[in-house]
């Protein structure tokens, strides 16, 4: 990265949802090293504060907001705080989702309230954040909306039907939003990570399933957060200016679109 690129980044504000842990935290740390100004948002205030402190060590301007992406009032309040703090949003990484705490089970055993909650957070939350942030992007006639889907959709991965259904919806949302926002200078793309190791333990990939997933990859190794962050950086940058409505699979060549 050249100094002039860093200077360009230093005016840009990136909003990262679900930044308290896992991939969201990794995006925060990576964007911080490249000079962006950061707004981190999550439900989990304690963990979020720790990530903001880590980012602060990189000497970057960073604010943290505790908010629920699935609650319209919470999102509106966050948007007002972001507007007051920065007066602009350039990049939204719509990353927060109900994911690592999910239990795998046959679809007939998914309780209706869990189904409803997963769809509400993962779909409606993604919509609410886009709806709240896009007006701030429109001001500068430039924006990058990056929605996090999952390669599990392309694989038809079983046993968390609410999750794969929600992440399929994110792809549809991405395509239609790309059409609506292209004329405003805003690109909208989806990133589809494969099963990625983070610092968070989870039950959605058992050790046996993990070995099977690795065996399915064209590049047969574990997927790490750094494998995903670079792709998100590209979609956030000027270099991706003519790319919109796309679903970029980052799964070591397990699935091909
Ligand atoms: N890690 C993977 O293997 C993988 C693979 C494909 C896709 N993804 C997607 O990447 C994203 C991040 O994955 P991860 O592994 O870091 O997940 P994670 O479960 O570890 O972290 C999700 C974060 O979102 C926050 N969150 C959940 N609901 C929220 C709400 N209503 N409002 C605000 N914050 C909320 C949580 O507090 C948490 O900090 C998710 O969208 C996930 O579906 C992950």
Give the distance, in angstroms, between the N- and C-terminal Cα atoms.
Answer: 30 Å
Number of strands: 9
- Spatial ordering of strands, largest sheet: 3-2-1-4-5-6-9
Return the string of H and E elements: HEHEHEHEHEHHEEHEHE
| Major beta-sheet overview | 7 strands, parallel
Rg over C-alpha atoms, rounded to the nearest angstrom:
17 Å
| Ligand kinds | nicotinamide-adenine-dinucleotide
- Overall 3D shape: globular
Strand content: 15-25%
**How many structural domains in the coordinates?**
1
- At the first level of CATH, the class is Alpha Beta
Low-confidence stretches: none
Structural class: alpha/beta
CATH homologous superfamily label: NAD(P)-binding Rossmann-like Domain
Counting DSSP H or I runs of 4 or more residues, the number of helices is: 9
- What is the CATH topology descriptor? Rossmann fold
- Mean of the pLDDT scores? 95
Helix content: 40-55%
CATH architecture: 3-Layer(aba) Sandwich
Chart the SSEs and their pairings:
Blueprint: H1 3-11, E1 13-17, H2 22-33, E2 37-42, H3 45-57, E3 62-66, H4 72-86, E4 91-94, H5 112-138, E5 143-148, H6 151-155, H7 161-181, E6 186-193, E7 196-197, H8 207-215, E8 223-224, H9 225-236, E9 247-250
Parallel strand pairs: 1-2, 1-4, 2-3, 4-5, 5-6, 6-9, 7-8
This protein binds nicotinamide-adenine-dinucleotide.
Task: Give a description of the structure.
The chain has helices at 3-11, 22-33, 45-57, 72-86, 112-138, 151-155, 161-181, 207-215, 225-236, and strands at 13-17, 37-42, 62-66, 91-94, 143-148, 186-193, 196-197, 223-224, 247-250. With 257 residues, the protein is an alpha/beta fold. The chain has one domain (3-249): Rossmann fold (3-Layer(aba) Sandwich). The strands form 2 sheets. The chain has a 7-stranded parallel β-sheet, sandwiched between helices. The chain has a two-stranded parallel ribbon with strand order 7-8. Helix 2 (22-33) packs parallel to helix 3, helix 2 crosses helix 9 (225-236) and helix 5 runs parallel beside helix 7 (161-181). The longest helix has 27 residues, at 112-138. The model has no long low-confidence stretch (mean pLDDT 95). It binds nicotinamide-adenine-dinucleotide (NAD). The site of nicotinamide-adenine-dinucleotide has 28 residues, from helix 2 and helix 5.
């Amino acid at each position: 990265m050249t100094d002039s690129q860093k200077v360009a980044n230093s005016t840009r504000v990136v909003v990262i949802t679900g930044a308290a842990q896992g991939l969201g935290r990794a995006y925060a740390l990576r964007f911080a090293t490249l000079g962006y100004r950061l707004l981190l948002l999550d439900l989990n205030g304690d963990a979020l504060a720790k990530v903001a402190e880590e980012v602060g060590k990189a000497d970057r301007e960073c604010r943290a907001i505790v908010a629920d992406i699935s609650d319209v009032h919470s999102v509106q309040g966050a948007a007002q705080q972001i507007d007051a703090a920065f007066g602009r949003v350039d990049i939204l990484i719509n990353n927060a989702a109900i994911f690592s705490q999910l239990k795998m089970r046959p679809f007939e055993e998914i309780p209706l309230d869990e189904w409803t909650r997963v769809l509400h957070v993962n779909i409606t939350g993604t919509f609410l954040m886009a709806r709240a942030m896009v007006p701030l992007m429109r001001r500068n006639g430039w924006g990058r909306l990056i929605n996090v889907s999952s390669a599990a959709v392309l694989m038809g991965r079983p046993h968390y039907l609410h999750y794969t259904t929600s992440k399929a919806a994110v792809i549809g949302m991405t395509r239609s939003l790309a059409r609506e926002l292209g004329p405003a200078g805003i690109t909208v793309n989806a990133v589809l990570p494969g099963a990625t190791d983070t610092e968070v333990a989870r039950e959605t990939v058992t050790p046996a399933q993990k070995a099977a997933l690795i065996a399915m990859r064209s590049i047969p190794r574990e997927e790490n957060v750094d494998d995903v962050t670079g792709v998100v950086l590209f979609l956030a940058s000027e270099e991706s200016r003519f790319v919109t409505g796309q679903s970029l699979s980052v799964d070591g060549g397990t699935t091909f679109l």
